[in-house]
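Tutorial, part two.
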Amino acid sequence: MRLLLLEDDAILNETLQHFLSKEGYEVDGALSIEEAEDLTFDNQYDLYLLDINLPKGDGLSFLESLRYAEDNTPTIYITALTDMNAMAKGFELGAIDYIKKPFEPEELLIRINAKFQKSVINYLHLEYDPESQIIRYDGEIIDLGNVQFKIFEKLLCQCGSVIKKEELYECLEHTSDTALRVAITKIKQKLDIDIKNIRGKGYILEKL
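Running the prediction step on this input gives:
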């Protein structure tokens, strides 16, 4: 697959290009909308990775202009925003997913693979299908409920990395330390996995 990455942070752009290239993807990087426009004019892509916040313009407006030009290439947008209106607009324009900064390159890879390779993620006795969002415990389907599912998916997608509790708060209906602890305890009990609390930092699902 050939990807176009529009990200104005030169270090992040180069890091993601290098990481995804090692995973077998062909990646063209652009630091500005102007560079991205030139690349989309000269090349065809299987996926766009578009940052929203850019020095001149924004990724959503760029995606909108592509759609007006009848370019329906699947898009994952990258954002540091928690603005629900911006997120909603992205999906209205046909984005298939988004990833929130800061993130680990492995999480982006999982999201790309989930959308295009439909790979199943295995962890101990668990099997997670990102396409259907079904979790199986020793082959039996497990229903976590919306809040617990969001937390589990975030921990699994960033397996091996400590996730700040503030980021996990976004999965909750009512934000509090108690609600987060209760949700994580229920996930551990239902799925029989060890989610560690790193005091003062957050939570981690350790790599096997």
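The CA atoms of residues 17 and 27 lie 6 Å apart. In part three we will examine how such features are distributed along the chain.
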